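Quick one: co-fold with oxalic acid.
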Amino acid sequence: MRIIFYGNHNKSAPWIAALQAALPGAEIEAWHPGAAPADHAVLWGPPQQLFDEQPRLRGVFNMGAGVDAFLHLKLPPQAVLVRLEDAGMATQMAEYVCQAVIRHFRDIDFYEREMEQGRWSFRKPLARSDFPVGVMGLGVLGSRVAQAVAHFDFPVAGWSRSRHEIEGVRCHWGADQLDEFLAATRILVCLLPLTPQTENILSRATLSKLRPGGYLVNVARGAHVVDEDLVALLDEGHLAGATLDVFRTEPLPQGHPFWNHPKIVMTPHASARTLREETVAQIARKIVAFERGEAIGGIVDTGRGY
Ligand code: NDP
Ligand code: OXD
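Sure, here it is.
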């Protein structure tokens, strides 16, 4: 069995070594133009040329959970596209979102600023019941995040495409229930995949339906947000703030209005990192099962986009 590896960085060697250790019988090499035909590909951010030159691929394993970058590429018709399921990202995402929610609810920014000025001052404690959290996307990551936030006794709701039942989470589904979900939410967390249906979903039309003092945590994809609408709603005071981990263009271009906006907290797509050990173990397990003709999880429905 031949496997090609492609990562958009120059750190392929330790990944290939880890894959080789997990799949000792396989012949694994970094992809380069003209590489011999392979059975499987393990990839992050591949160019179209790779697929054009690899017509024999049967399995295309993405080293990430989101597959939006693949939706514009033409894969060999027989190849299945497989995404990461959790692989250590769900706990990281739960940590990240809980810190963003708690940081906002507990006014940590205010206290840090005050202490920096040498001031010992307090604000009135707020009621958790006034900060209902709504999670868009109740998949592998969103459901874990919703449960983690509920653990801190915030009222939590969720919204997905199909019906879900999650203990401690008021679940909504479908376009018909979106407005009701938004109107009941103060802190909105986005964990949707980026698809033609969800692109630009965080716009003036939706964000202005949040409860007054709304707050956005976007950890999914930058293109979910209409940037100008977000800045306008923050400047108008309808939104109290935003924590953003993902951006329409990454790295975020210099001069973008998000830089230095007083109500925006940012991180550089770091909320849930791809962890080598967990990622390699999961992909190797799936390749072995696939070769045996067994069912594997994480196969992307490319028509649906996730
Ligand atoms: P899943 O595929 O497991 O979950 C996607 C969820 O979104 C599902 O609940 C699905 O509904 C829902 N959904 C999809 N389309 C719609 C729609 N049109 N309307 C309503 N709900 C919809 O994905 P993951 O949880 O694994 O990952 C989510 C996203 O997180 C990834 O696609 C990626 O973009 C992002 N991500 C970001 C990272 C970062 O570092 N910032 C790291 C990893 C992922 P249903 O359940 O009904 O199918
Ligand atoms: C992913 C990501 O989709 O890192 O896994 O964003």
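If it helps, Residues 64-66, 84, 274 surround oxalic acid (ligand 2) (CB under 6 Å).
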